[in-house]
Write a structure and sequence with these properties.
20 strands, about 25% helix, single chain, about 350 residues, eight-stranded mixed beta sheet
Length: about 350
């Protein structure tokens, strides 16, 4: 061991979860942030669809999203906001009318601005849609693109400015608790902390196991995305389009289109790779709802979204290990909820 470090709080994982929490904690405590990779954000954080949608996810997630808007919409030190207008269009066939109506009522009850559209209005919004696939739609005009890299870097930069220490290439090999503090070992260093935070994403249950805490069943699931060159190219102001049953989504990225089958394939924690079958399924579903020629599939990638059994985030101290804090299981919502979730986590800590 070449070095030893002492912290009030040590956070394992420097993706969006760990970085945002370190940002909120650093003004109030000595914070360490461990990242197993050479660069933070290489896994789920760097492979996001990069959307802010108050209309997406369970009700508890939507509440955290709403509470995050002010942070993301603010200009800081002359920089532009971290979100920019995009819009999102939920489409439904005639047989899916009840599901669309239920979502509409839920969102209106929460104060989210959404509009019901008939087929003509939906096709005016996205002309390539087939009328049978968009017999009716729900338009969320307040949905936005998120600049994920700038958001992540703002969290990391703010944490460091308040004294947090980021250590990369820090693969945790052992964790032990004794004399009221944790001892965390990597191949080259040792860290001591009064409180240990598990923000390890897909590796959250594995980290818990090293610490002697019972796993919570946080399961990584693969999500696949393909980048398409289409003829014609997508309009830059095209909204994200997803069906009400969440079997696909697509959105423009510059002159290209991102397409996903909205898959959730169980996976071991890993550097996720796309599977050709998932890409083929996405293209098949896409062809069933639009009249739009795919000129080429230019690239494809996959990321892991990690879910607890109830599909809600896990924030709080472990019931059996009182100095072990969970900040994990954020599913596909961790980026859009990051500001509010981090404030909540810091307050609990």
């Amino acid at each position: 061991m070449s070095a030893q470090h002492d912290f009030d709080v040590l956070v394992i994982g420097a993706g969006i979860a760990g970085a945002s929490l370190a940002h909120s904690l650093a003004p109030h405590a000595r914070v360490g942030l461990l990242e197993r990779e050479a660069l933070p954000g290489m896994h789920s954080t760097g492979r996001s669809a990069a959307m802010f949608m108050e209309s997406y996810g369970p009700a508890q997630v939507r509440a955290l999203t709403r509470a995050s808007r002010a942070f993301l919409a603010a200009s800081v030190n002359g920089e532009p906001p971290l979100i920019s207008p995009r819009g999102a269009l939920f489409i439904a066939s005639a047989a899916q009318a009840d599901a669309l109506q239920a979502l509409h009522e839920q969102l209106r009850g929460e104060g989210t601005r959404v509009r019901r559209l008939d087929a003509a209005a939906a096709l005016a919004c996205v002309p390539v849609l087939h009328e049978r696939a968009a017999a009716q739609a729900l338009l969320d005009e307040d949905s936005c693109d998120i600049d994920v890299d700038r958001l992540h870097q703002r969290f990391l930069r703010g944490a460091r400015q308040h004294g947090a220490q980021l250590v990369v290439n820090a693969d945790v090999t052992a964790i032990a608790f004794a004399n009221d503090h944790w001892c965390i070992s990597t191949p080259t260093q040792r860290f001591n902390a009064r409180v240990l935070v598990n923000a390890a994403g897909a590796w959250a249950d594995a980290v818990a196991g090293l610490a002697g805490a019972a796993p919570l069943g946080i399961a990584p699931k693969r999500r696949t995305v393909a980048q398409l060159r289409t003829d014609p190219a997508p309009p830059r102001d095209l909204p994200l389009v997803l069906d009400i049953n969440e079997s696909f989504y697509f959105k423009p990225d510059g002159t290209r289109l991102w397409l996903s089958p909205h898959d959730e394939e169980p996976s071991d924690p890993c550097d996720a790779a796309p599977e050709e079958l998932a890409v083929a399924e996405a293209i098949d579903r896409f062809a069933g709802v639009v009249d739009w020629r795919i000129a080429a599939v230019e690239r494809r990638w996959a990321g892991l979204r990690s879910f607890a059994p109830d599909r809600l985030p896990v924030y709080g101290f472990d019931t059996a290990e009182p100095a072990f804090f969970w900040f994990a299981g954020q599913g596909g919502f961790g980026i859009q909820t990051a500001p509010a979730a981090a404030r909540l986590g810091a307050q609990l800590l």
